[in-house]
Every structure is written in C-alpha cells, then in structure tokens.
Amino acid sequence: MLLHIDSSADPTADSVTRRLTADFAREWRALHGPADYRHRDLTATPVPPLTGGYTRLGRRVEREGFVPPAKVAALIESPAEAREWELTLPLITELAAADTVVLGVPMYNFSVPAALKAWIDRVTFPGAFAHPDTGESLLAGTRVVAVLARGGAYGPDTGRAALDFQTPYLKAWTGRLGVRPEHFHPVAAELTRVDVLPLSAGQEEAAAASLAEARAQLSRLAAVG
User: Fold this and answer.
1) Which of 38, 60, 139, 215 is the most buried (most CB within 10 A)?
2) pLDDT of residue 198
3) Which domain, by its residues, includes 42?
4) What is the total count of domains within the chain?
C-alpha cells in the first residue's frame, strides 16, 4: 500500500511538495495499481496535538513492557485516554499497512511543519510497531520517501547545511521506528522561493535544476514499488 501524506499549508497551486507528492503517487499508482492507496492531508484534516490522556496511557503501556495495539484498549482507565486512543489507533494501523510512505515536507523555520509533527507525535506510540513476539520493527521493510522543499539552499557547499533540521530529524525519527537506513529516501527541491526572495535573485537556473533533479529522483523511486 502507498500512504501519501501532505503537510503543506499552501494549496497545490502554490505548494512544491504537494505537486511533487501528487506526481509520485500518480506514477506509483500507474505502475503498481490504484487500489492500495491512501491519501492523508494533514492541513485539511489536522491531527490533534497530544494531551495528558495520551501520555498517561503511553506510560502505562511502557510499564507493561510494551503491548501490541490490539491489546492497548484493555489498559485504558479514563474517557480521556479512550479518546486519545480512538484518535491514535487508525493512524498507527494506516502506517503499519503501508509498504511505501511518501511524505510532503516543506521547510518551515528550518524544520518540519507543525501539522506533520502532530502526526509524528501521535503515531510514535510506545511499542506500536514492535512485533509482539520478537520485538523487531514491523516497519523494517517500509520505504519512506520524504519530499522536501526549501525556499533557500542548504546543501553541503552552501554554508547553510547546519540549518537543515528537516533531513536529520526525519532520518532519526524513521530510524527510531525501525525503518532501515537504506529505505529512507530524502528528495529535496531547493531555492523554491527564488521568484519572491530578493536574496535568491540570479539563482533561477539552479532552482530549476534542483526541481528537475527532484522530479527525476522521485520518478525512479516510484518505479521501484
């Protein structure tokens, strides 16, 4: 299954990540079939931030030595916890079912959008992706394609690489969930605001080249399945 997640606050016409994730999904579905596909727009349908009910339930699960999601309901002790689990379980189930996840991640203040962070916080429930018998990650075989868009340039030769908190954060998070390093694919389009940022003037060709390379990378990744 392909799980397609967008987090840009911009509509598709103004969003580089939305256009690129849509292209990826369209190519993936053309090659692998349209049936196993799920799109979640975190701006149109925001994931609520965590509350105390979530953290209390999570700590109780940790004290039990982690339990599979199917057994978490038996540990719920309050309506607040029940509500938090009701919001969380469908997202966990959806992610666990995915063979490929494509994330649309614009850079907001050097990091990821709050809408995406809320989703990440909720699906990262204690033990949610651990095999109940072996403890091995259920996401070990899952591919994560992170489609990144930056208004500036943050490559290793730009002097601004240290300000890129998108890629390191997503790499650390997916690794913590058990996604194999070779299955995490960050694809960045840089200088996407070259048309509006005065400091980017004169970099139009570099911006176009970055976008073209991102499209080519995503096309190759979509073909893999």
Assistant:
1) 139
2) 58
3) 2-224
4) 1
